[in-house]
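Standup, Tuesday
Yesterday: got the pipeline producing structure tokens again.
Today: sanity-check two examples.
Blockers: none.

Example 1:
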Amino acid sequence: MKPLAPPSIAPPFARYSHGVEVPAGWRMVRTSGQLGLSGDGTVPAGTRAQADICFANIAAILAEAGMGPQDVCHVSAYVTDRSHMAPYMAARDAFLAGRDVLPSSTLMIVSGFTRPEFTVEVEVWAAAP
């Protein structure tokens, strides 16, 4: 993957790339949005704990396709309040730690999810040869 960073626009203000070019012929995986729902059906309090579950679920989905966090080319995330941005971003940065090419990223504030205890939802695109 190749990061895209036109010099005519301001640099990203967090750990992401403005764009990512995926080589022709690579396999693509797109996940559904993952919520902070643990395997036993519980939802932890706190956005960081929920975001960690989101990324653990994403890692499991990618592993089933023979991929991992290093193959993520785009992350879309949704939080229910600005106060949830920093804990989400900490979980995202931990998930993407050690990467040379960062994925593109979208983060939006939304009014809510299917259940009121959810504070974050994350989906990704991944690509690998």
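Example 2:
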Amino acid sequence: MLIGYARTSTTDQVAGLEGQVRELKAKGCAKVYAEQISATSARRPELTACMDNLRAGDVLVVAKPDRLARSTADLLALVKDIEAKDAALLILSMGGQELDTRNPTSKLMLTMLAAVAEFERDLMKERQAEGIAKAKADGRYKGRKPTAMNQALKIQQMKAEGQKATDIAKTLNISRMSVYRALRDV
């Protein structure tokens, strides 16, 4: 059975998630697990459910390897877990080629391409850090504006009205610690 997994990092990427799901269903996936969560998140419940339901002979299908794994090591560990279940991994979009771990050449290509993708990401992060450092040196980079401190007066008002920190945090969509910090610093 073909089982699909689709993921985007943020809820803003609805079209990307829908596109992946459409592609997986077009490939013939009987079930598609989809979630909008960062790959760096400690828990990815849909991936966990997908892996738990993977049976011998099944093929896990993903649009791209970065939708499944956060690093080369992570990807290779997932492939190992998939193969331990006597299942396989099929990646649909690898430069116009499909990579299927039931094929030794595809497994080699997958390892090499995952390493290249991780290398590119590391280079991008390095360039980003250099850009931020230059912007800071030029006095143009101020960092992200603090969202809770912008609402400090509202936080104080809500607290004065007798609302609890947890309720204030939920209402303003900020953390409870941000509420305490805003009350302390103002």
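Quick observation on example 2: Helices lie at 14-27, 45-53, 72-84, 104-137, 147-150, 152-160, 165-172, 176-185. The longest helix spans residues 104-137.
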